[in-house]
Amino acid sequence: MNYRHAFHAGNFADLVKHAMLLRLLAELGRGPTPLTVIDTHAGRGLYDLAGSEARKSGEAEAGVARLMRASDAPVEFNPLMAAVTALNPDGALRRYPGSPWLIANALRPQDRYVACELRPEEHAALQSTLAGRGNVVTLCGDGYAAAAARCPPRGSALVLIDPPFEQPDDYERVVAAATAVRRRNPGAAIMAWLPLKDLETFDRFLRDLEDAADAPLLVGEARVRPLTDPLKMNGCALALLGADGLEAPLAAICAWVAQALGDGGLGRAYRLSSS
After folding, report:
1. Helices H, strands E: what count in the chain?
2. Which domain holds residue 263?
3. What value, to the nearest 5°, has the Cα angle with vertex 62 and ends 59 and 193?
4. CA angle (230, 235, 239) in 5-degree steps
5. pLDDT tens-digit map of 228-256
6. b/e map 63-79, b = 16+ CB within 10 Å
7. Has residue 40 got a pLDDT over 80?
8. CATH number for position 66
């Protein structure tokens, strides 16, 4: 795989994913039960926005830089904006937190985080980013396989599935991993991120996940442009299982990103029921 998230860190899709991830972590962290978080495609955890990759793509400038200047962003973005501010105390936007950084800093001492990264060089950077944290484990290996294997059979758990979608079977493997996790721990929450390119691919994925999970599914869409060119990432989506009461926050996140950062964008959230 030649995907490098350094080119895309802080783009509109990261804003959707990370704002909702922090909201979900806050909800799950309110209970007395220790929380286990498993991240199937963790990446390096922290990104240099002043690096050549980020400057070449310009996606951070069109994403997180605009968020940090915005006066109309909904409150659902406040935790993410606070995390970005903490990483850039002098006000210059040089660093952006990936999901490992956000998760590790959101955990309580009794919680546990398993961060999986397949590429050795990215895993080495991830280890450095998360060094010294006693409740964090990093794995250099297949996160799809680790999702269910590392999920506790009972108790509070969240699995983040966020592949690069460069392999032809990624959609199928997301569904298989989510199904295996819910089979092992029916109460586990799952958040899967995916790109929005064309409706046929997206609808087929939702049907497959809904059928396999046999549980209500919360879906959020942030379309930054019409889905007319399947070769482009025209938006992104989140599919959540075990996330009750979060439709309104997800809708607010998707709507702001689509409208503020998109070109004729559309953002929404809705539930699908398997019954």
Report:
1. 11, 10
2. 5-272
3. 60
4. 105
5. 888 888 999 999 999 889 999 999 999 99
6. bbbbbbeeeebeebbeb
7. yes
8. 3.40.50.150
